[in-house]
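hiii so my PI (J.) wants the whole complex modelled not just the main chain, which honestly fair. so below is everything: two entries, each one labled with what it is. i double checked the lines twice but i was tired so who knows lol
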Amino acid sequence: MKILATVIKNQFQDSFRSKWIIVYSLFYFLITFGLILFTNDSNKIILSLMNVNLIVIPLVCIVFGNVFFYNNREYIIMILAQPVDRKYIYLGLYFGLTFAMSLSFLLGVFLPIIFSFKIFINNFNIIFWLIITGILITSIFVGIAFLISMLNENKLKGLGISIFSWFLFTALYDAIILMLLQILQNYPLEIFSLTLTLVNPIDITRIIIINNFDIAALMGFTGAVFNKFFGSVVGFVIALFSLINWIAIPLFIGLNLFNKKDF
Amino acid sequence: MSTLKIPSKYLLYILFIFSNIIISKTIYVNNTIQLKNALNNALPYDTIKINKENYQFNFLEIKKPLTLVGINSPTFDGNNKGTILIVKSNYVFIEGINFQNTGYSFTNDFSAIKIDGANNCSILKNNFTNCFFAIYLAKSFNCSISNNKIVGSQKRQTFSGNGIHLWYSKNIYISNNFIEGQRDGIYLEFTKKSTIEKNISKNNLRYGLHFMFSDSCNYSENIFEKNNAGVAVMYTNNVKMNGNIFRNNWGDASYGLLLKDISSSEIKNNYFIKNTAGIYLEGCDRNSFKNNQFKNNGWAIRLMANSMENTFIKNIFLGNTFDVTTNNSKNYNTFDKNYWSDYNGYDIDKDGYGDTPYRPVKLISILVENNKTLLILLRSFFVELLNLAEKLLPVLTPETLIDNHPLMKINI
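here's the output for the full assembly
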């Protein structure tokens, strides 16, 4: 465990030494600060931050994770020569990067909000969920990026697949849902649509947030299905379980591949 | 001619008041028997003062013009057996009495006070608890119902009646009442020229306010909150609604204000806050919606395509999930000079209006109107892309439903 901690620590420090993480953090800071400065309307700020959560974080995490893994190939090979268990190296790289990216997200979004917390007083629960889901999405997409780079030796191919999978999660999947729900609209679709959304981590995040935000509209949904589901403990645990699965499964597969991989 | 008419009316009132002071006497009662005797023996325009006791009776009729005043709020208890007081005479005043336990019936309209064919009556400052109907007016004119508190305790619609129920009445003044937990808070049917103002109607099992065939009524500064199905008004002309608040009416069939077959009416200066649907219009023509504020509603306005020639001018739309939705690609209504918080345009000529028009109907709102399940895709990246495409090239959304002069700033 001590070795794992050392690898994580090294990785974490190394990440912050590279300027990209600082730029990433600054980007959030500027966006949040700019939104607060120009709109002063907490609803609009929350909506924009939600879009950041749903679109920007997955894209940056998946691309950056990919590039990071390919760039550190020599370093990984070097470290493999040391008497260190392989799984510690993989986990160390993963957690080091995830911590660094989560922290820079947290600092970038949280600092401006703390400075002007007054306008968010009514919406504090949504801010809380934005931050929690932001960190979860970061963890999920760094894991997926690592898995993709494990599967592909070719840098360009890996990057291409990364961007495609980002597009799949953010847009294509919803397009498929839209199509299915339109085709099958004569059937009772509440449970079906709920199941479909519980598969995609970005949809889960979106629904957790709009369940707090657009509550008046969602109550109009037949029997307020969502509100009942996500309002109940069971539903909430299922949603959280699905998100955690999205962290655990890619990480587990990637770890196995890494253990067997011949560099 | 009308200027001549008003003084004569006042003269009548003054005469009436003076006659009251000169001739009438006051009777004090302490128990039910005394009360019944007093009602039998009193002369018209006498005052019966009722001491603080528990009076138990049903179907007690008032056949003379009398004033009933409670001292320190006595209780009239119906013991769940039926109507408590029936007023059958003009000029009856009832003030400061607690009414309770009328019981319920599926065939009779049990009520705490039933005013049947009597004019010029007043019901002031009474409390009603656990009553089927609280105040029931049938074929009565020129009555006033003010400062009453009506609290129902039933959980199901069938066991509960309306708070204030008007049937075939005219010139009724309903003000400053508080109504909670009844079936409909205020119910009007075939009632004309009445004023309903400054009432609070909330947590009712069905509608906060419900009227049908009640032309030329005024509704102002009322608060309708958290009613199970909101407010629904139907088949009426010349309604004036001014300064009312419609708040927190949540649910699939719950509306801030449901308008069905309402025409030539004015809806001004109202607030619609956090309703599933702010206003729902079906078959409504020639109405004017002005200076209303719609804030944080699911749907600010659901405009069904069978509504025509309505005008929406200078309203404020703030942070609604959907501003306007409709079920057709045709539109015969006018939107102009409204403020839309979702508007992203610019104002180069500095005239206060945006230079590019605003389209309040989004593609997703049209889709959701036909397939409610699609609400789960709300604010999805893909859906936003579709909305953007539709905005540039309208296919499904009505091309004429457009605000050509969106306000840049809120200014009233």
